[in-house]
Amino acid sequence: MHLLTALQLKEPSLLFRLAVIGAQGVFVTLFGFSYIINAKFCHRFVGYLEEEAVKTYTKCLEDIDKPDGPMKHWQTQAAPDVAIRYWKMKPDSTMRDVILAIRADEAHHRIVNHSLASLRKDEFNPYKPGQ
Ligand SMILES: [Fe+2]
């Protein structure tokens, strides 16, 4: 959903979209094999990746909130429809609200992935589907 929101904002060229699909195909394939070899490592890796994402979105929010910053227009720019539907946001939500929702997602992904990476073999997944 993060990628779909970004795509709706930028409306990139067909070449760019194909490059994104290609990169995702390569990553999913390599990550899938890595997961078969060492799932704990993959969850830890994603946990750290998500931590970096939280920092990045925090920096983005700081840039949005700067009165003369390069991203100040996101204080008032309307959120894309796809974001409003997915996160069940108010119709007058802004891009700043979208970044807050995305950062909350990333923080949740961080906790889930570090939790799964820390599970012992005799422990069960503590998360139910959708949690
Ligand atoms: Fe994430």
TrEMBL record:
* Statement: the UniProt record of this protein carries the keyword Methyltransferase: no
Please give the Gene3D superfamilies that the UniProt record associates with this protein: Alternative oxidase (1.20.1260.140)
Q: Which Pfam families match?
A: AOX
Which cofactors are named for this entry?
Fe cation
Q: Which UniProt keywords apply?
A: Electron transport, Iron, Membrane, Metal-binding, Oxidoreductase, Respiratory chain, Transmembrane, Transmembrane helix, Transport
* Top-rank taxon, per record: Eukaryota
Q: Where are the transmembrane segments?
A: 14-37
What GO terms fall under cellular component here? membrane; mitochondrion
- Which GO terms fall under biological process for this protein? alternative respiration
Coarse class of the primary localization is membrane
Q: Where in the cell is it found?
A: Membrane
Q: What would be an example GO MF term here?
A: metal ion binding
**Protein family according to the UniProt entry:** Belongs to the alternative oxidase family.
Designated name of the protein: Alternative oxidase, mitochondrial
Q: Which organism is it from?
A: Elysia marginata
